[in-house]
Fold this protein.
Amino acid sequence: MNESKRIIAGRYELGELIGRGGMAEVHSGVDTRLGRTVAIKLLKSDLAADSSFEIRFRQEAQASARMAHPTIVRVYDAGDEVTADEFGTERHLPYIVMELVTGEVLRDILRQRKLTQQEAIFYANGVLTALEFSHAAGVIHRDIKPANVMITNSNAVKVMDFGIARAVSDSSATLAHTNGIVGTAQYFSPEQAKGETVDSRTDLYSTGVLLYEMLTGRPPFSGETAVSVAYQHVSENAPLPSSINSAISSALDSVVMKSLAKERNSRFQSASVFRSALTAAVQGKAVSFFEDGAQPATAPLHPVSEDTLQETATVRDIPVIDPFAELLESANEDATNPVTKIKPAPAGEPTQILENGFSLLGFETKADEPLEQTTVVTKVRGDTPSGGWLWGAGSGAFVLIVGFIIWLIAGGGALISFGGDTGTRITVIDVVGKTYDEAYLSLTQQKLLVEKQLQMSSTVEAGNVISTDPPAGQEVGAKTTITVLVSSGKALSQMPDLSGMTEQDAILAITNAKLVLGTITQSDSPTIAKNLVMSTEPAANSQIPEGTVVNLVLSTGSVVVPNIVNLELSDARDQLTAPSVGYTVETQVDVTCLGTAGTAVIAQSIAPGIQPQLQTIVLTLECLLN
């Protein structure tokens, strides 16, 4: 049989080869049942050697198929076709049917040329957007790498193969038997290299590796074997990106190095926080602290030069309309308006911490009394004729003076006191994830005051603590008020009425309502046209939490016609006009009949079985002789 006409699973027509990797080949194809073009990934047969592989593989593919987002390559179907070769030996062919994307794999782009800083940041933002959506849906990718990122012809980012890595790595035909292990090991997280369980932060580490490679042109670790690369992920620190590419700012350095932290608790804790830090880095704001208070040894926060800030603040010409483009535009506007602002650091916002400069004013601080940190957000105009020293001297003096006042008010120098227990320092306990009652008890036992605030959350269970301000680990005075942010549960969304919509329109409406696509099944309908939505679960117009899975039922455009030959006309008419069939019934007598029509049906114009909807069926009645 011609390869271009090969049919998979009795439904998918295999087209030309459009890609090949260590574990699979990808062909263009056509879903002959729905008439749409698709991409068909054929996995190597040795991956299916484990008899339980098909079950795991299909489960992961089904989980991936529930996600519908512009940054994720849709999975339509998956399976394991069993065939026999010329010797009668049974062969398994695992396959995935996906959205057909026109563009290039990021791996191939990186092999052809170096990316600009703008491109690297833009592509990383797209990957993080996809992960933000998938993690909210409970799906961890496990194999973020350039080979799994597509850049479309319109320069949009699409991530593929969600969940497939788990099914493959859990099978007895492990990745060690494929050519993909060395490439994959370059993007391993430390916990993957050690064989530990993974979570969403594993994907963020791999994204950090990908960002590192896009910025510098090489991964942070390399070696002759997968084992040597995995060892480096666990035990060695990567060199600063700026040591390889001097155009990289310290702000970007800090973001990359935080994402590559060995301990999961020291990395970004969500894709949205990672994106926010990347956004801030474009404007020259460095990530200056870790959740555990520790700084990475390989990522000192050296000052950002005026030239570097000018370079990162003038990123332009991203060719795709995207929310990130608004960020880049705002960075340009800020770059023409030099400002120095002093404000408290918002919880979770990447900032740059100004080191203590009070010694320049002739004041000394006690070693055991840490200063309150002051957050300084600096934006530099690179096109002004005046030198950077004027800006630095003016803003620096202003910061020192205001910082000194804050220091005095905080009781740091014992020169002035405004009351309160300035001698007792309390380390705020970590109550994130606990119930509010548990958090309240723990904090009040520390002689701290508690203020409760509610906030909707799609990830934290209602009644549990999202964060505290000041955060855990920070030292405060006794009777300091701790603001405890408590989840009020997921935001509610109204289930849209999808009746009569096409599949694509329904998916768009589900995404716009901040819901998640679940299963898509088909059912017979006497009235609703083929491939239009018949029903949904949950029902239309109900109030449901954001992120709820929505299942669609599409019409086949067909009905099951019963066999009514030999039935009485009244019974036949009842069956054919019933709501499940909905046919129009007409009767006739054979033209050769010389008598009158009886009441028994001897023939039907439409055969029993699956037939198109909305038809007129003609019943031939028996002939009674006079």
About this structure: The longest strand covers residues 75-84. The CA atoms of residues 59 and 271 lie 24 Å apart.
